[in-house]
Structures are given as structure tokens and as C-alpha cells.
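Run log, item B.
One chain of 227 residues. Sequence copied directly from the ordering sheet:
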Amino acid sequence: MVAVQLLRRLHEVAEPLLAGQSKWKPLWPLNGQMHPNICPAIKKANMKGVLLSALHDIKFDGPESFDVRLGSTGQNTVLVVPGVIGSPNSTVLFAKLDTGFSVDELPVEILSLPILDLEFSMNLIVPGVIYPKGYCGPLFIAVAARKAMCVQAGYPLTQLVALNHQDLEITVSPHLATSSHDQRFEGLLHPGWQDILKHGCVVTARRCLELFEQYTEELISKTLLAQ
């Protein structure tokens, strides 16, 4: 057993879920597809580690785009919720989701991987990510969709497991906290980010990338403040 503390940066983040105890059910029966849990290896994999969830609804138009909201922080900077991974020429764009959690000095190498049972039944694409031992900073999830859909807030999107095969004992900081390196990362959510979800300018992910290619962040910020 290896102990890992997650630093909660936002009040709104959901508690991590123990793998195998999620209330969310895969959609295989609805799609008329074979349930993957008939495979003992997949069933065992689905019981490992803990699950982290989406903080807000995400509307995908398919693999090429999704809805994002742009909001000014008032300091000539723009917050993009969710972030966008890719370029205007990419055939697949990934939403960069901030889980609202950070870690300080990870005691063990951790793999963030797709939740097989849930991901494939939703036609999601969730690439795996390795956080090295000693990592300090936020935990993100990259997500794309093979077809148009909406992922609901609270839906589990990644599974954290230790690469040394030990079980994880996850605790969450009782008070809001940040890692020593959070300031180095762009696109982190901060208190007040939900105002952007409610009142921010809605654009597609592809349009968002085009805007940042054509205009400076300062100009985009001033335009948003003027609306």
C-alpha cells in the first residue's frame, strides 16, 4: 500500500471514487454490445486504483471539436474551460480537463489511464499519462469523443494506478491547497471559474485555436471584458 495525498484546489471537486464502486454504469446494454466484464483481465483492471471525474458538463461535436467557454480574468489573460489540445489542422481535438487536484512530491510513479468499461461504452478517447515519482503539479485529463455527445459533470474519466503494482491509499487535503509548482502551469481553474461557465463566451474548440493564432491574449481579454 502506498499513500498519496491529493491537494484540493477547488471546493467544487468531487471526492475520488474507489475503482469498482462508481455509481456510473457502462452503456454496453443500451448499445446492444457485449459487456467487456466477461473478460477476467478487464474485470480485474476495472477494480484497481481510484477514479477522477469531470468537474462540469462537456459537449462534444465529435472528434473534431467541442464547446469551450472563454472568460477574462481581468488581468489581460483568458481562461479557456476546458483547455484545448491540438492545432487548427488536427483531425482530433482533445479537451484538457483540470481535475481540480494537484500533488506534491508523488511517492511513486502513477499511471492515469482510461477506464475501459466506461470509456469504450461512451465512445470516448482518453490517452494514458504517466506522472513520474516526485512529480509536483496539477492532474489533468485529456478527452476526445468519436461521436457527438455530452459528458456529464461527475462522470469518471480516468483511473489512477501505481506502476509498482501497489494499491493506492488516497487521501484528500482537508483544506484548499496547491502544490509548490502549480504556478508554472497554464489553464488551472481557480475560484470563480464557474462564472465563466455561466457567462463566458461560447466558441468551438477549433475556433478557439484560430483566435489565439490571430490575436494576442491581451486583445482577446479586452474584447471579452467589453461584452
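Observations after the first pass:
- The chain has six helices and 16 strands.
- The two ends are 52 Å apart (CA to CA).
Flagged for discussion on Thursday.
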